[in-house]
Design brief:
The complex is a heterodimer of chains A (335) and B (358).
Chain A (H helix, E strand, L loop, with lengths): L1 H8 L9 H51 L9 E2 L4 E2 L2 H32 L2 H13 L5 H28 L14 H25 L3 H9 L4 H30 L2 H6 L17 H8 L6 H42 L1
Antiparallel strand pairs in A: 1-2
Helix pairs in contact in A: 2-11, 3-6, 3-8, 4-6, 5-6, 6-8, 7-8, 8-11, 10-11
Chain B lengths: L1 H23 L3 E7 L4 H14 L3 E6 L3 H9 L5 E4 L5 H6 L5 E15 L8 E2 L1 H8 L9 H4 L13 E5 L4 H13 L1 H6 L12 E3 L1 H11 L3 E6 H6 L6 E3 L5 E2 L3 H12 L24 E8 L2 E2 L2 H15 L16 H12 L2 E2 L2 E2 L9
Parallel strand pairs in B: 1-2, 1-3, 5-9, 6-7, 6-8, 12-13
Antiparallel strand pairs in B: 3-11, 4-8, 4-11, 9-10, 13-14
Helix pairs in contact in B: 5-7, 12-13
The chains are: A mainly alpha (335), B alpha/beta (358).
């Protein structure tokens, strides 16, 4: 057998090259490898460097404001472009507040959608509904803003609020007169905008849960609900947290739709019905006409603050994922 | 593959060279940037001027007055455009090498939405300042009803709406309120964006107009052009002669004529024309300006720029009405002719002293 194949192959093999030639051939290949490697390294380094360059640019641009206000910038509430006095507290609070409201609405809705689509929906319904949810992500944000102005705000103010007022009106969270443009309106718009992201990623996560887990849950006598709540969701925890953070990141940075419905008021408001402001909206609104150096610097500075908030949120998410991943592995060994 | 790419590059390079040659053979390109308010007018001017003089292209980018001043200061553009004049500090930054040329006029008017009220309401500067300071909070406040006898104003909260973006419209509005109310001047002041005592912010004229339209009891301010094009109803405002004036292109031009009637001929044109003299002058009006250097270095380019501006201030004015800008009064154009003739390159005037247009 071996002999046969050897004799059969022998004529087809190229004339035996010298060791030197083979070494040279090998070197040409590895030169190509080197180029390939270099190109890939440059690509890989490009994005982190870009991130550093952006951060550096923000610091340089923000310098007039940093030098003038120092750390107190973060806790001051004044916003007076005429006298060059600025503070970021209302913007920071408004950004976090509206995004938090959005998460509060979007997380249950999108997780519910994902669970329904993977566990309960009849097969013929799954793909159309999933596609339509994902289509929500394709709607431009200015369209959401218009919808907010013409549909959502009148709906909230003229129809829902008169019903809810007797129940909620005395809570500080719903105090004050409700004119329409508000943190609540911004939160609802943001919730609709981030919903498709959280739903789509969560659905993928739940689909990736091995069938064995489901079968085991059911085999142990769990109902379908118990299996979802106590087996499937815990299995996908890390991924679902990732999905939520993805949505949060988008909510923090959203500009156009928010500025159209939030009322753009530089004031810390705890009531959901009062207007607020977010960092991204303030930059978009004021940058073109910011003529003084300090005003311009201030807009760079709040950009830097937003950058840091995003980094912190991502770090927190990584920490959570790490904790959860460790927790679940401990759990599985205990089982 | 590689050959094909090289071939494409060669073709591209060839076209680029060709385009470059064509350009070098005679087209002068004038670039300007700034005011979004004046954009429709300047782009129309650029188009019409290019039709008359095929060798001149005027490129105008509407990136906001602030950016316009910035790019003019850094000599990125040949001319700047702004809705608020440059400050002394900004003029110092270009070593005083700038001329403000008014090109057209804009006006700002109060618009409101009071359920059940269709009459055109009358306002004074004091009342508008009171509303925007948060001191007049109900539509049936005696200070409003006293101006509007016969109109049944409801006991409704006033919702104040203002621009959230930096804007020349806000500059004109706050400039007017500063003149009419010492308290406004002291507490708030004037600027393209200001520290609003009360109110909701909306982006752009449409943002403010939408808040007003959608919110019962709201009052806002919008530009004349926007109000005319979108058929928005607005209030009458009392002028310095005590008459309540309907904002229109004509009453806006009257405002400028009233303001410059007793003008120092050597003015730098950085003047506010809100609350001017004149029985038929609408009081909330302002110039919009083009910024050009007093001394330039490139004679060929300076000539094209100055000729273009001369044309804009004369023949160009006829496009104002169609686009709902108020044209400049005759007296302002006369003074500006002198400014254009004072522009020099290496100490030599760009225009002959007897220039009458070409």
């Amino acid at each position: 057998m071996t002999d046969l194949s050897a004799t059969a192959l022998e004529p087809e093999v190229a004339p035996r090259s010298t060791a030197e030639e083979r070494w040279r051939a090998l070197q040409t290949v590895s030169r190509g490898d080197a180029v390939y490697r270099l190109v890939l390294t440059v690509f890989a380094l490009f994005l982190p460097l870009l991130l550093l360059a952006i951060a550096g640019d923000l610091v340089v641009g923000a310098w007039p404001a940093i030098a003038k206000f120092g750390p107190s910038f973060l806790v001051r509430s004044i916003w007076d472009p005429v006298n060059d006095q600025f503070g970021a507290l209302p913007l920071i609070v408004g950004t976090l507040y509206s995004s938090f409201v959005a998460l509060l609405i979007a997380v249950p809705l999108s997780l519910g959608t994902a669970i329904f689509l993977t566990e309960f929906a009849p097969r013929w319904l799954r793909t159309p509904v999933a596609t339509m949810v994902e289509l929500l992500a394709a709607v431009p944000s200015v369209i959401y803003g218009l919808w907010g102005i013409f549909v959502l705000i009148p709906l909230l103010r003229d129809h829902l609020w008169p019903i809810a007022r007797p129940v909620l009106g005395h809570l500080p969270l719903f105090s004050g007169v409700f004119y329409g443009p508000s943190v609540l309106a911004a939160g609802v718009i943001l919730a609709i905008m981030i919903l498709p992201y959280i739903a789509a990623v969560s659905r993928e996560i739940l689909l990736a849960v091995p069938a064995a887990q489901r079968e085991a849950g059911l085999a142990l006598g769990g109902t379908r609900w118990e299996t979802v709540w106590r087996v499937i969701l815990p299995y996908g925890r890390a991924g679902i947290i990732g999905a939520v953070v993805l949505g949060l990141g988008r909510a923090l940075g959203e500009t156009m739709a928010v500025t159209m419905v939030i009322g753009n008021r530089h004031e810390v408001a705890l009531s959901l019905l009062q207007p607020g402001y977010t960092i991204a909206s303030a930059i978009a609104n004021e940058f073109a006409e910011a003529t003084s150096g300090v005003h311009r610097g201030t807009l760079f500075l709040i950009g830097l603050v937003l950058f840091l908030i995003t980094v912190l949120v991502n770090a927190l998410a990584r920490f959570l994922v790490w904790r959860v991943a460790r927790g679940s592995s401990v759990g599985s060994t205990a089982l | 593959m590689t050959k094909r790419i090289i071939g494409l590059l060669a073709v591209a390079a060839g076209t680029a060279c060709f385009a470059g040659q064509a350009r070098a053979q005679g087209t002068t390109s004038l670039t300007g940037s700034g005011s979004t308010f004046a954009y429709p007018l300047y782009s129309k001017w650029g188009l019409e001027y290019h039709r008359l003089h095929a060798d001149v292209e005027v490129n105008y980018q509407a990136n906001g007055s602030g950016a316009g001043i910035q790019q003019f200061t850094n000599r990125i553009t040949d001319f700047g455009a702004t809705d608020g004049p440059m400050t002394d500090a900004q003029i110092a930054a270009v070593s005083g090498n700038v001329i403000h040329l008014p090109t057209a006029l804009g006006a700002v008017m109060p618009t409101y939405n009071i359920p059940g009220v269709t009459a055109q309401l009358k306002f004074t500067g004091e009342v508008l300042a009171g509303i925007y300071l948060g001191q007049i909070t109900k539509w049936n406040d005696s200070r409003i009803t006293a101006l509007n006898p016969g109109v049944a104003l409801p006991d409704q909260d006033i919702v104040v709406a203002h621009r959230s973006d930096g804007s020349g419209t806000t500059y004109i509005w706050s400039d007017y309120l500063s003149k009419m109310s010492p308290e406004w001047a002291q507490r708030v002041g004037k600027g393209t964006s200001i520290n609003w005592p009360v109110g909701l912010g909306g982006p752009g004229n449409p943002g403010v107009a939408n808040i007003v339209k959608q919110t019962p009891g709201a009052i806002g301010y919008v530009e004349l052009i926007y109000a005319i094009q979108n058929h928005i109803s607005y209030g009458l405002v009392q002028n310095s002669a005590g008459r309540f004036i309907n904002a229109s292109l004509e009453t806006t031009t009257n405002a400028a004529a009233g303001a410059v009637a007793h003008l120092d001929p050597n003015t730098d044109f950085r003047l506010s024309i809100t609350n001017p003299d004149g029985a038929d002058a609408y009081p909330i009006a302002s110039f919009t300006w083009i910024l050009v250097p007093k001394t330039m270095t490139d004679m060929a380019k300076a000539q094209e720029l100055v000729h273009y501006l001369w044309w804009a201030l004369h023949d160009g004015q006829k496009y104002c009405n169609d686009l709902a800008y108020a044209p400049l009064p005759r007296r302002v154009v006369q003074l500006e002719e002198e400014r254009l003739k004072s522009i020099t390159v290496d100490g030599k005037p760009v225009l002959p002293s007897n220039y009458r247009g070409r």
